[in-house]
Write a structure and sequence with these properties.
disordered N terminus, 227 residues, mainly alpha
């Protein structure tokens, strides 16, 4: 509750987004998007959804209204702040990813199921879908960071972490107003960056192997004497 009291936001006349106006396809996109973001920034995702519901910017589905709880907002806000710093330290970020595997996947499953079920029922099918999506994005994030940590300089790691922060906040801002656009942008950016880092790593690894194991130059065959 103390954390909520510190957020002294001015009164802004923003149109509230009602979940009841979204189609089933849009709700599916919202659920997949939240699960994907949970695999990357689980605490920031929960905190952002809860704040949006608490401030009246979004009329959250019944099951997602649990994120508006002062306890949920307080804990997720503190952990989001801790993750903000831990995720920018090479080596520490990989350890943080490993520890949070047990949270990102089930929370992603819950967020997806809660968004796809306006009546509050969390079916096993949507839970499994959310878990699979969160696990996929978590794997891409953690494996990409593990590759970046092989570099001795911290700039790439810091840049990647800041990019994930911006992407998560931007996607949450678009989640309920333009869910398909947000989903396509987030998945495309995540996969593209992961593939780019993997490609760079392969190039560097191939160059390192050539330096460590140089191939002997082929000997020129002896010239035959003229006849």
């Amino acid at each position: 509750m103390a954390l909520i009291a510190l957020i002294d936001l001015p009164s802004v006349d923003l149109p509230s987004i009602t979940v009841g106006t979204l189609s089933e396809a849009q709700l599916f996109a919202v659920g997949v998007l939240l699960a994907w973001l949970a695999g990357i920034r689980v605490y920031l995702t929960v905190f952002g959804v809860g704040i949006a519901g608490l401030m009246g910017w979004i009329d959250l589905p019944e099951a997602l209204q649990a994120t508006e709880s002062p306890w949920v907002l307080g804990v997720s806000g503190v952990l989001a702040l801790a993750e903000f710093f831990a995720d920018k330290i090479p080596g520490v970020d990989s350890g943080w990813d490993l520890l949070n595997t047990v949270l990102r996947v089930p929370v992603g499953a819950f967020l997806a199921a809660a968004a796809m079920s306006p009546d509050g029922s969390l079916g096993p099918g949507v839970l499994a879908t959310g878990a699979g999506v969160a696990l996929t994005s978590h794997f891409l994030k953690s494996s990409t960071r593990a590759i970046l940590n092989t570099s001795p300089e911290p700039v790439t790691n810091l840049t990647a972490s800041a990019g994930e922060d911006v992407m998560t906040v931007g996607a949450l801002a678009l989640a309920f107003s333009h869910p398909w656009i947000a989903l396509v942008l987030v998945v495309t950016l995540t996969v593209t960056f992961a593939l780019f880092v993997w490609w760079i790593w392969r190039k560097l690894a191939r160059g390192a192997r050539r330096l460590l194991n140089p191939q002997p130059a082929a000997e020129n065959p002896p010239l035959e004497p003229p006849r």
